[in-house]
Design goal:
2,3-Dihydroxybiphenyl 1,2-Dioxygenase, domain 1; disordered C terminus; globular; four-stranded mixed β-sheet; alpha/beta; single chain; 2 domains
């Protein structure tokens, strides 16, 4: 049997405080609210929607207690492409986003930076810089394309 899974319809972040999460994602990041219903809210983020569900409500839905994740062991990141990572990072930090890693050039051809949301979820800002040049070893080995 083929399941027919294609692409995610939505991603739900489990949060401690829905109001706090919405303030961050709408006021600090500037994402538009799609709708809210009780302990659940969804942003209008296009094809794959970003949503939030309060931890206590998710625990009730699952029928088991849920504990907040450890900040030193993130399970994922939310990534956003930006035109200028330095400007976006500076603006988010000025708006109150906790800085994790300042803008840094990466060997895969991007410049990235990281902030955290109020629940500790990592948010990556990524600026494409073009494909990095091949090293002489890669060229000699036939690497890259």
């Amino acid at each position: 049997m083929t399941l027919g899974l294609r692409s995610p319809d939505y991603v739900v972040l489990v949060v401690a405080d829905l109001d706090r999460a919405l303030r961050f994602y709408t006021d600090v990041l500037g994402l538009p609210l799609g709708h809210r219903s009780g302990s659940y809210a969804q942003l209008a983020t296009g094809t794959t929607r970003l949503a939030f569900y309060e931890r206590l409500a998710m625990a009730a839905t699952l029928g088991q207690a849920l504990h907040a994740p450890d900040l030193d062991a993130p399970g994922f990141e939310l990534g956003f492409k930006v035109a200028n990572v330095d400007a976006a990072f500076a603006a988010l930090v000025a708006r109150g986003a906790p800085a994790v890693t300042p803008p840094t050039d990466r060997p895969w051809g991007q410049r990235t930076a990281y902030v955290r949301d109020p629940d500790g979820h990592l948010i990556e800002l990524a600026e494409d810089r073009g494909r990095p040049p091949h090293t002489s070893e890669e060229t000699a080995a036939g690497g890259g394309g």
